[in-house]
Specification:
Structural class: alpha+beta
CATH topology: Metal Transport, Frataxin, Chain A
Helix content: 25-40%
CATH architecture: 2-Layer Sandwich
Radius of gyration: 12 Å
Strand order of the largest sheet: 1-2-3
Strand content: 25-35%
Number of strands: 3
């Protein structure tokens, strides 16, 4: 599944993520997750090109956004 960093940032903001700050290479985002009773955070590169598969997998992993591939598809469909 290919998606640019900019598109992913837009999808996450639409999903309720908040941009906390601009990093050198992208944006640092956070969102409260009641299911784990903690704040999730991630940094997404601000690239117009598609993200590398490993980078995308890390962002979608349970340690960062917790979305997984299914969650990303859901966000894209609801757009």
């Amino acid at each position: 599944m290919a998606i640019s960093g900019r598109d992913l940032i837009r999808l996450l903001i639409d999903d309720g993520w908040t941009v906390i700050r601009r990093a050198n290479h992208g944006f640092y985002l956070e969102k409260w997750d009641a299911s784990i009773n903690a704040t999730r955070s991630t940094t997404v590169p601000d690239y117009a090109q598609d993200l590398a598969p490993g980078t995308l997998a890390a962002i979608l992993s349970p340690r960062q956004t917790g979305l997984g591939a299914r969650g990303l598809r859901r966000l894209q469909e609801n757009r």
